Amino acid sequence: MSHEPQDVTVVLRAYADGDQEAFERIIGLVYDDLRRIAHRQLGRARFGQTLNTTGLVHEAYLKMVDQERASWEDRSHFFAITARAMRQIIVDFARKRSAAKRGGGEIPEELDENRVAVLQEAERVIALDEALTNLREIDETMVRVVECRFFSGLTEQETADALNLSLRTVQRQWMRARAWLKEELR
After folding, report:
1. Which alpha helices (H) appear in the chain, and where do they start and end?
2. Most CB contacts within 10 A, which of 19, 47, 108, 110?
3. To 10 degrees, the CA torsion angle through 139, 127, 170, 76?
4. pLDDT tens for residues 135-149?
């Protein structure tokens, strides 16, 4: 991530203390990082031109601005929350694509290879989201670790900091979550 964690944390705390202009400063500090996270998520989701990095960052921004009084603890926590927002946007997009595949009230049209790939990817994203929802019933911490590591691209240490866990706990939860998801998605 490009900026010093202290810089972002100071501005996040100013926002939490009521400085309304601080959110704009936060976005200025982390915009490149948000684009990197969005690009990483969309790289996995292969939705092509219909959902792009800039669009995902802007949708996440709007989702974050709509929150009443967010209390982000620090830079890592902010990125963890942002990753969750981006995940929700991608899943919503995938659900819309999947509904369109099933007809969605439209006249069926011939499918080309790119459209088939996008629809298959939408189904994969929905399956992952459903698996994470099921995992949340078993262990909320594992889901939060997956969101930080997989969706946000945080390191193990950044994830530990964001979730206020030990590094060893994050490593153990990440390993367990990947094994569980692999089995669930099989």
Report:
1. 5-16, 22-45, 53-65, 75-101, 113-138, 140-146, 156-163, 167-185
2. 47
3. -110
4. 999 999 999 899 888
pLDDT in tens, 146-164: 988 887 778 899 889 888 8
Distance between CA atoms of residues 55 and 140, nearest Å? 29
Q: What is the rounded distance in angstroms from the CA atom of residue 26 to the CA atom of residue 22?
A: 6
Vertex 177 angle, CA 118 and 78, to 5°: 75
Hey, what are 110's tokens?
């011939």
Q: What domain count does the chain have?
A: 1
Rounded Cα distance between 83 and 70, Å, is 15
End-to-end distance of the chain based on CA atoms, in angstroms? Answer: 33
Domain that holds residue 94: 5-185
The closest of 80, 78, 61, 81 to 14, measured between CA atoms, is 78
Q: Are 68 and 20 in contact (CB under 8 A)?
A: no
CB 125 within 8 A of CB 56: no
